Amino acid sequence: MAKTDPVETTEAQLAVHWKEEDYYYPPVSFIAQANVTDASILERFSEKNFPECYKEYADLLTWYKYWGKTLDTSNPPFWKWFVGGELNACYNCVDRHLPKNRNKTALHFVPEPENEPIQHITYQELWVRVNELAAVLRDFCGLKRGDRVTLHLPMTAELPITMLACARLGIIHSQVFSGFSGQACGERIADSQSRVLITMDAYYRAGKLLDHKQLADIAADKAQSENAAPEKVLVWQRHPGKYSSQTALVTGRDFIVNDLLPQYRGRRVEPEHMLATDPLFLMYTSGSTGRPKACQHSTGGYLAYVAGTSKYIQDIHPEDVYWCMADIGWITGHSYIVYGPLALGASSVVYEGVPTHPDAGRSWRIAEELGVNIFHTSPTAIRALRRAGEDIPARYNYHFKHMTTVGEPIEPEVWRWYYEVVGKKEAVIVDTWWQTENGGFLCSTVPAIAPMKPGSAGPGVPGIYPVIYDDEGKEIPAGAGQAGNICIRNPWPGLMQTIWGDPERMTRQYFERYCKDKKSTDWHDWPYLAGDGAVHAADGYFRILGRIDDVINVAGHRLGTKEIESAALTVPEVAEAAVVPVPDELKGRVPELYVSLKPGFEASPELSAKIAAVIAEQIGPIAKPKHVWIVPDMPKTRSGKIMRRILTAVSTKGNTGDITTLANPDVVEIIRSTVQKGT
Ligand code: WT7
How many CB atoms are closer than 10 A to CB 266? Predict the structure, then answer.
């Protein structure tokens, strides 16, 4: 390694000097029961069988009408899958399981308060509750297929019930993470032109009953300010029969769902026959520019893809008890708590609260009590559980056959704790790399076939052909030891259909960079740019290094730096703002914020706190900067560009390198001493 100047050495370049990790092999007991044990799946999904290979995933579903064309590429990059096919996602996740599994648990709802009993909701009960709610949505709200509805629901059974009721009617749901602020929710109501907002009065988090309905009022006001006020706000009660919010209901707008339901008791609603290419839901995520954008996911392609990957990568059998700790407000929860596991008829756990509440044993007690055998979480949660008690899992008598990690790179050290202590060396681990845009997994090992390698996701999953390109668009071969931009060469059924209301952005952000011929309708000319740096090892495994754009991955979720900066700029005193990602022991990365003030204002701890509070209020607590440093000026180039890499170096106590080319080199020392004094 010749060059070690930290400013010039990117994370990607450093990564290739990490040592190769040893393989871990799947336990024999896992292989003995796995859904797929022979490597012929790789052959079936190889390029020569593309796109017809995906028929195997679509055949896991029940169709009203079989599709004509598997893949239509006539309007790139807006690929269409299973064209002409008709199905209903709710029917596939609920109704079709009734003849055999009416009495089987579909959802285990685990309330955070440990003295509140777990609800075991059977497929029959789920069917009844979904039908009655669908009747409310259709007959009370007047909603119909193609309408949008925003959900701002916490992790309770009502969230999947509401999603499924929407899917039954062909209503496009847009669930906003409950930890997001009222303003963030309101922006998304406006952007999606949702007719109705569905929320809950309150929920438990870290031992407290949080008033959640108050956010609905802020959201409705915000949407109204953009001329998009929701017609109605439906409010679920966390404790049915009792209103747990301090906030008043707005007459004519707000309705308690639990009060409406008795009028619809016993009502049954026929599932709509949806086209495979009709949208199922919207999911917002952050990109490098401006406002969050909604990824529009399809009914047929998406459901086929999550069913297929749930079966082969998550190894879900109908008899499994599956617990994914993600929040359903993120794509992971949509795909791998709700749609994938329920399409396969498994039992899926919905846990309301914090994994370490009231103590570090909570997760393992849940696993023990419910007989969870598949466990799915993020490196951030694994780090938190490890910090809360290295040896606590050993005290509990649960047994996992399979575990997943998702959302951010996992350090090999943390991986080994997960494998040895949480998995008790009995469970196979898959490190699944993918994104909100993708619907389901892109890279992972197929668990009974390929060995695990700590810190590496693995090769492309069956039917996904990744490649790494350098900045010039030249392919970097496996084993070259050089990092580049990971792309997927082919379309796949889980890929979003478009960015809601902004198709041009779909093309620009994901396909423009490496498109070989914009006039071509041959998919080979349209590689998908994921926006992550990665290294392709000689064995074909990909190691993901992180984002290449202005997006910070905090605790496994993307936040746009521009979103945070624009929130900071709404504080009247702030003149300029720059966000940099800094490593965090628990969350992987967290934002730190640098601001300069308008003339006449003074730095103070109160002002820093106020700026942080405004960000939390506008976006959500997840975006709150670890520090807000008020500095006299930003380091700038002569053309006036803020040099974020210098701020990053100061925040991470790295070498700022050559600063003589700055317009204001002297400010760097002042910034450094501000930061040093602060820590
Ligand atoms: C970004 C996507 C879809 C899962 C939830 C996050 C990072 C995701 C991994 C992994 C390393 C990962 C990437 C990706 N990421 N999984 N296994 N190893 N990094 O969804 O908010 O859309 O974020 O998360 O940087 O681009 P998201």
Answer: 8
The Cα 224–Cα 209 span in angstroms is 28
Beta-strand ranges (E) seen in 93-201 are: 105-110, 119-122, 148-152, 172-175, 196-200
Cβ atoms of 235 and 255 closer than 8 Å: yes
> CA 419, 378, 580 angle in degrees (round to 5)?
125
Give CA 114 to chain center in angstroms.
27
Task: Give the tens place of pLDDT for each residue, 303-359.
Answer: 999 999 999 999 999 999 999 999 999 999 999 999 999 999 999 999 999 999 999
Q: How close is the Cα of 32 to the center of ligand 1, in Å?
A: 30
Question: Which of the given ranges, 242-251, 284-293, 649-658, has the highest pLDDT on average?
Answer: 242-251
The pLDDT confidence band at residue 289, using thresholds 50, 70 and 90, is low
Cβ(554) to ligand 1 under 6 A?
no
From residue 72, give the alpha-carbon distance in Å to each of 75, 497, 522, 523. Answer: 8, 12, 10, 10
Give the least confident one: 186-200, 413-427, 547-561: 547-561
Burial 130-162 (b: 16+ CB within 10 A, else e): bbbbbbbbbebbebeeebbbbbbbbbbbbbbbb
What gap in Å lies between CA 181 and CA 219, rounded to an integer? 8
Alpha carbon 385 to chain centroid, angstroms: 20
* Nearest-angstrom CA–CA distance, 409 and 417: 15
How far the first Cα of the chain sits from its last, in Å, is 32
Q: Which of 284, 382, 435, 499 has most ligand 1 atoms within 8 Å of CB, for mutation?
A: 435
Please tell me the predicted confidence (pLDDT) of residue 4: 34
435 lines ligand 1 (CB under 6 A): yes
- Condensed to tens digits (0 to 9), the pLDDT of residues 395-446 reads 999 999 999 999 999 999 999 999 999 999 999 999 999 999 999 999 999 9
Q: What is the pTM of this model?
A: 0.93
Is the pLDDT confidence value at 608 over 70? Answer: yes
What letters, b where the CB count within 10 A reaches 16 and e where it falls short, cover 602-615? Answer: ebeeebbeebbebb
- Pick the atom of ligand 1 nearest to 444's CA: 17
**Cβ proximity of 127 and 95 under 8 Å:** yes
User: Based on the number of CB atoms within 10 Å of its own CB, is 192 exposed (0-12), middle (13-18) or buried (19 or more)?
Assistant: buried
**Pocket-testing residue among 288, 495, 558, 589, ligand 1, by greatest number of atoms within 8 A of Cβ:** 558
Helices (H) and strands (E) in the chain, counts: 22, 30
| Exposed/middle/buried for residue 106 (C-beta within 10 Å: 0-12, 13-18, 19+) | buried
In the predicted model, what is the mean pLDDT of residues 383-406?
A: 95
- Which residue CA neighbors atom 27 of ligand 1 most closely? 435
**CA–CA separation, 629 and 638 (whole Å):** 23
| DSSP helix/strand/coil, 135 | helix
- Residue 537's alpha-carbon distances to 1, 453, 479, 480, 616, in angstroms, are 18, 11, 5, 7, 40
